[in-house]
Design a protein that fits this description.
Elements: H1 6-18, H2 28-37, H3 40-57, H4 59-62, H5 94-130, H6 132-147, H7 150-161, E1 166-168, E2 171-173, H8 175-187, H9 189-202, H10 206-213, H11 218-226, H12 231-255, H13 266-274, H14 282-308
Antiparallel strand pairs: 1-2
Length: 317
């Protein structure tokens, strides 16, 4: 049977249906899912991140003690059976404080990722689709944000805005939200440039011209026809933003410009433990290890998603 023989192909298809074998077409999402689950390190990292997130979400039930409960008989003690992560200089269980600090840090990181992804996607989509004056204005604004010294802006904004909650009318914005807004203001630029590049390459394609000819509006074309082709880069960049936000928030809290007490955060816990020096090594080691584990897990998940969502990848049956 020759591959270019139409009669042979028809007879083979007929025999397939007669034998009761059903032919099912796989979507691109199915192929992407298969590629991701073949990336063992990414799957393991996803399991770790889910477990860590569940521990953070149910911190009130998982933590053995309250994050401010004091044990006056065990002040500044190393890891023991009752306190696996030891206690701090005030006798507070450090495992409980790490769990509650993990909840705060993860919440800020996911908030930053969602907000910066939304901002970057909108700005990049409009700049890439309309081009011309709109593109120049939006991209020059993006370049302006990129030229700002990131660390100086973060420290200054956090010092003036992030030290306490703010009341805007009837709404009270908590301090973690303020820190998240500051970080999101600087983290959207890279994604905006990526989305703009994809929109520039796709807006002249035949399927976009066909949608325009059929009378589709610009918003429908961007949302329905072009944006789905950007999901891969957007998702991968979002995972990288999560990892970066965790590290930057921890750095700000460590420097004393991030999450302030009584809100626990991993960076502030490291800062508290740094006061004791090497004599209280557990106060720095355990929060630092949690940050490393979470950041590595998110990065490995992003690596797996990048390979899975790459349309040039092929899976051999």
């Amino acid at each position: 049977m020759f591959p270019n023989d139409p009669e042979g192909a028809a007879s083979e298809l007929t025999l397939t249906y007669e034998s009761g074998v059903e032919l099912t077409a796989r979507s691109q999402w199915a192929y992407a899912r298969m590629r991701f689950f073949r990336h063992r390190l990414a799957v393991f990292s996803m399991i770790v991140l889910i477990l860590v997130s569940l521990v953070a979400i149910f911190a009130n039930r998982v933590a053995p003690h309250g994050f401010n409960d004091q044990d006056y008989l065990n002040i500044a003690k190393g890891p023991t059976w009752d306190h696996p992560f030891g206690t701090d200089l005030l006798g507070r269980d450090y495992l409980s404080r790490v769990i509650f600090g993990l909840r705060t840090s993860l919440w800020v990181a996911f908030f930053v990722a969602v907000l910066s992804t939304a901002i970057g996607t909108v700005i990049g989509a409009f700049a890439g689709y309309y081009g011309g004056t709109v593109d120049n204005l939006l991209m020059r604004f993006t370049d302006l944000i990129l030229t700002l010294p990131g660390l100086a802006v973060l420290l200054t904004a956090a010092a003036f805005l992030g030290q306490e909650a703010h009341k805007v009318g009837p709404i009270t914005i908590s301090q973690p939200v303020v820190i998240g807004l500051i970080l999101a203001f600087l983290f959207w630029t890279g994604l905006a440039r990526i989305v703009r590049g994809v929109f520039l390459s796709l807006r002249e394609k035949e399927f976009v011209e066909a949608a325009k000819a059929s009378g589709a509006t610009d918003i429908r074309i961007m949302l329905r026809h072009i944006l789905p082709n950007c999901i891969g880069p957007i998702v991968v960049t979002m995972t990288l933003i999560i990892a970066t936000a965790i590290l930057v928030e921890a750095a700000l809290s460590f420097l004393g410009f991030g999450i302030q007490p009584p809100n626990p955060a991993l960076g502030s816990l490291i800062n508290d433990g740094n006061v004791g020096g090497l004599g209280y090594w557990w106060l720095v080691t355990f929060p630092g290890l949690v940050i490393v584990v979470v950041a590595l897990a998110v990065n490995f998940i992003g690596d797996g998603l990048r390979d899975a969502l790459d349309p040039t990848q092929r899976i051999r049956a």
